[in-house]
Structure formats: structure tokens, C-alpha cells
Amino acid sequence: MGVAWALGVLTLRLGAAESVVSTEVVLQRQAVPYELETVYWNIDKTNAPFLKEPELSPENVFRSVLRFGGKDTNNTIALIWDQPKSKLHLDLNRNQDLTDDPAGVFSSSGKGRQQLFTNVTVFLLTPAGLNPVALNLRLSADSAGRQIQVQLGSRSIWQAKVGPPGKEWQVAALDDPFNTEGMDAAKFLLLRPWTERTNHVSLRDPTSGIVHFPDQLFWQGQAFRLERRFETSGGNAACKLELTPQQPSLTEVNLSGEFLQYAVLQATNGYTVLLSEPPGRLKLPQGVYTVRAAWLKKGAVKAYRLANAPLIINTTTSTNVVLGGPLTNSVRLTRQGRKLSMDYQLLGADGGGYQLAQVGRGMAPEFAVYQGGRKVHSGSFEFG
Prior knowledge:
The chain has strands spanning 3-7, 10-14, 19-21, 24-31, 37-44, 61-67, 76-82, 87-90, 105-107, 114-126, 129-141, 147-154, 156-162, 169-176, 184-193, 211-212, 216-219, 222-233, 236-246, 250-256, 260-267, 271-275, 280-285, 288-298, 301-305, 312-314, 319-322, 328-336, 339-347, 353-356, 366-371, 374-380. It is mostly beta strands. The chain has three domains: 22-35 and 157-322, no CATH class; 37-154, no CATH class; 328-380, no CATH class. The protein has a 16-stranded mixed sheet that branches. It starts with a strand and ends with a strand.
């Protein structure tokens, strides 16, 4: 019996005798409630007024510009920070008139020399056209009033829900708005179960499973070539993914290990592989893979594989792959003069280090030291 997957124009039917795949997935822009990446800029205060300005406070008004993409003047946005009124004015249409951008006026609940502005949307020029970017901006002035310290946090994501009921996946593309070479739209790809979509991820955290947007993807036992493009209709932007089926040479892999929820593998041949299958025999494109991320789940407990213990998988021939649990508590002892250093490790069946996704002060593992059957010392480890 076939299984129908539907999302807009995407339909996957998997059956014993058929495999029908349309080639388009539409990702809609979303603003996540957390920051995907944070940068810090120091920008100089400008004394000269802009061409047209709103009514401002007589003192503590800061004028400057935000320069996205380094020296790229196409993505320079003038700003006025009216500190007494807790107002931020942005010149979104780049005409030096800060009175004709109603969508460029933002308010902060904070007062004083540091203020946070949330849900700020700017439009940055990319080779594909203007791209909306959702930001948080935290502004603070130095004591001399010559510079503004700006903390910018990106919150934009392009996503869709794909899969049958109960087995949906989050398919998401992430921008790189702070690239010094210029705004790079949909530069990264994130694939994870839809139920995990509210979990915080960081653009630069390798354990998150975020990868540079690949040209080739192997998922649900199928190989695809990936391409992306942006379209705007009625003022709404969408990122569209084209999935073109491919038929690479496959190799049989015997996957073992417990509690694996999903894993992201990257190969030297360009394929990114998403594993979510139970232990057993499966087929993957031939190549030499590095495990970028592996997430385990047992009941409500989740753990992830640490990036500092790389795992290389060679599938040029039939091979055994161990990934996941059971997880084992262990301690590594090293001597430093008269001191004994003890490092706690949570090791998987593959020998790599793992960490629980949620750890609190009361969850730190305890240890005890015995000499001659008598306990001489005890304590607990500290995470991090």
C-alpha cells in the first residue's frame, strides 16, 4: 500500500511498485523566537542630519548607518536612535528620508543607555533580489557618545512541514545575513523531525545538524539533486526547492546502535544523508562520510553526539556502521603532578562522546573515591 505525503505542490508516494516524486517544495519565511546567530558591531555616530528626519528629542539622539556585507553600499541602512523616546528609525528604502518608512519605526520597552528592539525586519539585496531578514537589535552608547555598540541577532528561517501525519519533518533553509562578503540567502540547510522544530539551533553549532546547502541529498531511501530559488508574489517571498531524482551507485550498510532518532552525514562526493531508519540493513550512496550530527531519544530523554569526536564512515564497500547507544558513563583519569584530574564522559556504542540535551544542576553525575574499601572523597562533575 502506498503512503501519500503532501505539502503544497509536493507529493511523495512510496510503494512496492511505484515511486512518484514531484520536484518542488515551497518554504515560507518565518521568524523564530530565538537568535540563530549573534554578531557585535561598533558603529560611529554621525553628526550631520539626514535629508529628512522625524521629530526628535533635543538630546541623546544618535545617527549612524548599518553596513551589511562590509563595504557593500547597496546594503547600507541609515538609522536614528532616539534614546529618550526609546525609538529606532530605519531608512528601509535607502532614500535618506526617515519619515516615509512607517514599517521602519520600532519601539523598545527599555530606557536609558541600553535598549533592545525586537522583531526588526530589514530587506537586504542579494543576487536573487531583496530578501527580508528578521533581527533583534540591542543598542548601547559609549560614555563619550561617539560610538554605538550594536548586538544583532538573526531570526529568519525558511521552512516547510513535509511528511505523513505523525512523521513530519522540518525542511528549512537559513540565511547568512552577517556574511562580510554580502548577504547570502538560504546558505544553510536544516532537516529534523517536525516535533523538534521549537528547539533552539545555532547557525555555527555543528551538533545542530545545520549544513551548507548541499547540491545532493539522500533522504528516505531516495537520492535528489537540490536547487533553490526565490520568488515574490503579492509582496510575499518564498524559497522554492527543486528536488530532481538521481540514481547514484549504492552500497549496503548494516546500521547498529540504539535510540537513534536521526543523524546527518556528509560525504566527500557531495551527498548529504539524513538517517532516520531503525537498526538494520540499508543502502547509501557510495562515499566517505563524516557524521555531522546524531541525536538519540529514549522516552523524554534526548542526547546528541559531540562534534569533537569525529566519526568517519566509508561506504565504498559494504560496511558496518555503529551509531547511537547504549550510552555509558565513564571517567578519564590524568595525573598532573600530585593532582589527579577526572573528566566525565558519556560514551556511545560508537565510542564517541555524547551529551544530554537538557542538563540541570541536579542532574550532574556524582562520583566517590574509595581506598581500602573506605570512602575517602566524593563529589559531582560540572557540565561544560
